[in-house]
Amino acid sequence: MSGNDTHARGFPAFAAHRGGRVRGQSWWGKAWTDALEDTSVDGDALKRGRAYARTGQLGPITVSPGRLSTTGYEDGDPFRTVLTLHELDDAAWESLWEKTAERPEVADGLLAGELPPDLLEAAEDARVSLLPGYADLEADCDCDALEYVCTHAAALSYQASWLLDEDPFLLLLLRGRSASEAQEELRSVVLLQAIAGGLGSAGTRQDTKPAAPPTPDGIPAEEMFGRAPAALPALPPLPTPPVTAHASTASIGTDPLELLLNGAALHARELLAYTHGLTAAPPAPLDLWRDCVRIAATGPDTRVLARLREASGNPQRFERAVAAWRWGGSTGLDVLEEAWTPPYQDTARARHALAAGWEQDELPEIEMHDNHWTLAGRGLQLRYGRDGRWYPYRQEDGRWWPAAAPHEDPAEALADLIDG
Q1: Using an 8 Å Cβ cutoff, are 288 and 330 in contact?
Q2: DSSP letter at 132?
């Protein structure tokens, strides 16, 4: 699986903070930092990294097989930092799962979605390294630092322990297996060992153990599960989004079944887009509030709008939420409801884009607060979404309303807002 980035996962940048421990707090987070510090030959670099990790100057982090990477800005100059970790080959993984299967409590925990600390004992028995060892974690950064391990790389090493606090399965991903792959491979080994346990050395059933149950088509279970899995069929192409009615053209006689089918088609398209790698995460399950907003925005029916408004639990916010969904879908609703602090490098790029897209004497004065950039005294605003797009807003009756489609370029979003 070397070089396989299909399981890459992205995480937002860590905000700046003072005080507190910079080392990971969970069992696996502490184990990572212990291994990092025990095998490092440059204590000064780690000390600088611990201080820098708190500054919030590193950008979003991407974790993929054998690789940790981030970007950032320092004194106006961008830099990219990459840490690489040796990936385990198939033989090493097979040996690890065989030793894990011999420890039922460890195997059960991992299959249940946990990463038991005793997995390290199984790794030792299999002669497999999960945590970084000597010369195992390689650093590469395009900053101008002269040190072998720069401050950025050291800081990223410590922030990796914070990620392990939240999801210890990232350690397996760094070694080359996603959580689902690890669980599936372990499950197969456990099953095969259970089947083998019911057979004697000559392939006959032992008197003290039951025979393996036959499969429905009569093929012996040991033969069935010993086969190589067949290749999955190719994914179908991503279809165009289903057509939805606009509020102004919605028919009084809209068929409720048609609305359900349209919603199912849209959800299936979102799942397929995630499977194709076109989106970073699968669509999140909808709660009552978001589902009411979605139905009103994508399949309006004047007979049910009032009922949806009351059923949503937030009738005062309903119209604005529906407008946000129409312009930007689920992410558009998030932009309406959530304020957050974008990474420094994102805001720096936005300032540069605005300066390049407008004459200096024509660029309106902008007040910046979190992800809300407001044109002073004009009742216009841009909001930056976590999807990297800028959402135009207009103030009406003292409240901010979504006003236009989002753009990746803040200069274009601002132009649409002013021209509109």
Answers
A1: no
A2: -
Give CA–CA dist 393/324, Å, rounded.
10
Residue 375 contacts residue 358 (beta carbons within 8 Å) = no
What's the pLDDT at 420? 66
- Could you tell me the pLDDT band of residue 391, with boundaries at 50, 70 and 90? very high
Tell me how far CA of residue 360 lies from CA of 79, 191, 354, 373, 415, in angstroms.
28, 68, 9, 17, 15
Fill in the amino acid letter for 73: Y
Q: Which residue has the tokens 């011999």?
A: 102
Tokens 């991992």 — which residue?
Answer: 110
| Residue 37 pLDDT level (bands cut at 50, 70, 90) | confident
DSSP 199: B
CA-based nearest residue to 298, from 344, 265, 338, 259: 259
Answer whether residue 249 shows pLDDT above 70. no
HEC-encoded secondary structure of 46-93: HHHHHHHHCCCCEEEEEEECCEEEEEEEECCEEEEEEEEECCCCHHHH
**Max Cα–Cα distance, the chain, nearest Å:** 91
**CA distance to 263, 330, 375, per residue, from 286 (Å):** 12, 9, 33
d(CA 146, CA 376) in angstroms, rounded, equals 45
* Token output for 204: 């006959």
Contact criterion met (CB below 8 Å) for 400 and 409: no
- Residue 164: pLDDT over 90: yes
pTM of the model: 0.49
Give pLDDT tens digits for 264-275.
Answer: 776 677 777 777
Please give the Cα distance from 78 to 244 (Å, whole number).
42
What confidence category does residue 28 fall into, taking pLDDT thresholds of 50, 70 and 90? Answer: very high
Count of other CB atoms within 10 angstroms of residue 286: 15
Contact in structure between 353 and 409 (CB atoms under 8 Å)? yes
